[in-house]
Amino acid sequence: MKTEETLSATVEEYLETIYNMAMEDEIVIGARLAERFRVSPPTVTEMLKRLVRDGYVEMDNKRQVTLTEAGNQAAEAVLRRHRLTERFLVDMLGMQWHQVHEEACRLEHFISGAVDARSYLKDQGAVRLSTLAVNETATILCISEVVEDEEALILYMHEKGLTPGTQLTMLAQNDSNEEGQEESVKLQVAGHEVCISKTAAAKIWVTR
């Protein structure tokens, strides 16, 4: 089996994407990976064969893909490096949070493999914002890596003042039954009330 240091950027991207999709309870199959990476199904099939051969993923008789323990460790290492890269770009270079994601995606593959490969979200005790109880306070850790239009969500969060490190309080959850009205949550952020959709809230990871 290859060591983390010798993994290509493409392999790391596949492992990270499979990990993040699984975290969002998505069924991981080759067709969905092809859509996400915008490549042909045969290209994904060849990569999955390689990952199975190298011991990073397993596939069942329905062709559903799951990470092995080695695959999980490698993906968690990439995710951790991604978050550290984002913090570096924001804290040290002064970039805006909503502008750093794509740059972090490029740089994360070049950070030393000596970075601890523990699960980032588990280590932080992170939970989804949508699961907070009313009057519960938490701090934003990050947003999900698996959304249909991640850049749009990041910009939306930035405009709402919901950036990593922001403390917030859950004020209310609206489970509306009115037709056409989306379920929402009301938050208190920096002394102001902020409303966002429950769908968006489910994509935000926070620590209590």
Plain-language structure description:
There is one protein chain. With 208 residues, this protein is α+β, with helices and mostly antiparallel strands. The chain has two domains: 1-120, Winged helix-like DNA-binding domain superfamily/Winged helix DNA-binding domain (Arc Repressor Mutant, subunit A), CATH 1.10.10; 125-207, SH3 type barrels, CATH 2.30.30. It has eight helices and eight strands; from the N terminus they run H-H-H-E-E-H-H-H-E-E-H-E-E-E-H-E. The strands form two sheets. A six-stranded antiparallel β-sheet has the order 3-8-4-5-6-7. Strands 1-2 form a two-stranded antiparallel ribbon. A hairpin with a 5-residue loop joins strand 1 and strand 2. Helix 1 (9-23) packs across helix 4, helix 2 (30-37) crosses helix 3 and helix 4 (69-91) packs across helix 5 (101-107). The longest helix is centred in the middle third of the chain and has 23 residues, at 69-91.
Q: What are its keywords?
A:
208 residues; alpha+beta; Arc Repressor Mutant, subunit A; SH3 type barrels; six-stranded antiparallel β-sheet; two-stranded antiparallel sheet; 8 helices
The secondary-structure class comes to alpha+beta
CATH class of the largest domain: Mainly Alpha
Encode the helix/strand succession as letters.
Answer: HHHEEHHHEEHEEEHE
Count the beta strands. Answer: 8
- Low-confidence parts lasting 5 or more residues at pLDDT below 50? 1-5, 112-118
Strand order of the largest sheet: 3-8-4-5-6-7
Helix segment count? 8
Largest sheet, in brief, is: 6 strands, antiparallel
- Helix percentage: 40-55%
Mean pLDDT: 79
- At the fourth CATH level, what is the homologous superfamily of the largest domain? Winged helix-like DNA-binding domain superfamily/Winged helix DNA-binding domain
Total domain count? 2
CATH fold group of the largest domain? Arc Repressor Mutant, subunit A
Cα-atom radius of gyration: 18 Å
Distance between the termini: 38 Å
Tell me the CATH architecture of the largest domain: Orthogonal Bundle
Q: Strand percentage, roughly?
A: 15-25%
Shape: elongated
